[in-house]
Amino acid sequence: MTLLSTIAETLLKARTVLLTTHVNPDGDAMGSLLGLGLGLKSEGLIVTMFLDDSIPRFLRFLPGSNLPTHQLNGIETYEVAVILDCGSLDRVGKQAPKIGRIRTVVNIDHHEYNQRFGDLSLVCPESSSTAEIVYQLFQEMGHSINQDEAVNLYTGILTDTGTFCYGNTNQCALKVAAELVEAGVDPPSVASSVYGQYHLGRLLLLQRALSSLEMFLNNHISMITVMLADMSATGTMAEDARGFVDFAKNIPEVEVGVLLRELSDGGTEVSLRSNGKCNVGQFAASMGGGGHRNAAGFASLMSPIMLKKSLVEGLKLVL
Predict the structure, then answer these.
(1) Domains along the chain?
(2) Could you give the strand order of the β-sheet that contains 46-50, starting from the edge strand earlier in sequence?
(3) Considering only CA atoms, which of 96, 113, 10 is closest in space to residue 52?
(4) How confident is the model at residue 113 (pLDDT cuts 50, 70, 90)?
(5) pLDDT score recorded for residue 75
(6) Looking at residue 318, what is its pLDDT?
(7) What are φ and ψ of residue 224, in 5° steps?
(8) At 277, is the pLDDT very low, low, confident or very high (cuts 50, 70, 90)?
(9) CB of 248 within 8 A of CB of 259?
């Protein structure tokens, strides 16, 4: 019996299941969570979808986005917990210790540097996204995917492949995406919902971010900084800075693009994008974060200003 079939059997035999994903959820996290949650509900399971954070505005169009709860009062009623798209258990947030005590913990992820936690750990770095793995799980379960589930899974694949532009866009990802379209997904509608929300505040934040652009190491590293004052002045939130790092990466000669975003505690969220030469996933893992070879991130207690020099020195060693 394969691990995929073991997980499928475990879920189908369960009565109550808790699903969760990482803090600051992105398209793959939300698409996987909602897609799997709706699918298991339709199979008759009692499903709780838990999020430590709120759902980003650009993902609230997803079917079922009104279902996740932000409260977790007890764990004794859950037979299985499924952790989606998390490299480590603590990525689910402050409820991680409690969730880790659930009878059976299933870890489903596609990040190379996953810590392989849980009782059943299905980690597939060759997959484009966690949503793609969820699709394969549904196939193993014999579950017929409906339109709402398909929209969620397609969104996960679309966003984690960078609209099918990143290096993880392979034959399998495109095949699964095509099959999800057959299940009822309207690609232009999804793309418009995810990427067509450049409201005025976001544009003003981008203007400020681009004005902060700095180049290092003979233009091999580019860095954009978003401070709390920038978000306050433009009336924006953290999610409005999504994708800004690509502006830094897509400059000729640049090997690594960096986005530094100041956090409310004075620390920094670091997003890294590589054009292929530098393994930013490995670098991020060494800094306590994680991700993929060409897209990764981590958090630091240092302020953006204090972090810049040491970050450039660290990246210099892996370029």
Answers:
(1) 3-195 (3.90.1640.10), 200-316 (3.10.310.30)
(2) 46-50, 16-21, 80-84, 104-109, 120-123
(3) 96
(4) confident
(5) 85
(6) 87
(7) -120, 140
(8) confident
(9) yes
Which distant-in-sequence residues (6+ apart) come within 8 Å of 178 by Cβ? none
**In angstroms, rounded to a whole number, what is the distance separating the alpha carbons of residues 236 and 205?**
7
- Given a contact cutoff of 8 angstroms between Cβ atoms, the answer to whether 89 and 118 are in contact is yes
- What's the 3-state SS for 44-105? CCEEEEECCCCCCHHHCCCCCCCCCECCCCCCCCCCEEEEECCCCHHHHCCCHHHHCCCCEE
What is the pLDDT, as a whole number, of residue 1? Answer: 77
Give the tens place of pLDDT for each residue, 240-258. 999 999 999 999 999 999 9
- Is the predicted pLDDT of residue 73 greater than 90, yes or no? no
User: Longest C-alpha distance within the chain, in Å?
Assistant: 58
Smallest CA-to-CA distance from 241 within 192, 201, 214 is with: 201
Paired strand residues for 17? 47, 80
What is the percent of the chain where pLDDT is above 90?
88
- How far is residue 3's CA from residue 166's CA, in Å, rounded to a whole number? 28
Report the distance separating Cα 40 and Cα 56, nearest Å: 23
Q: Do the beta carbons of residue 291 and residue 310 sit within 8 Å?
A: no
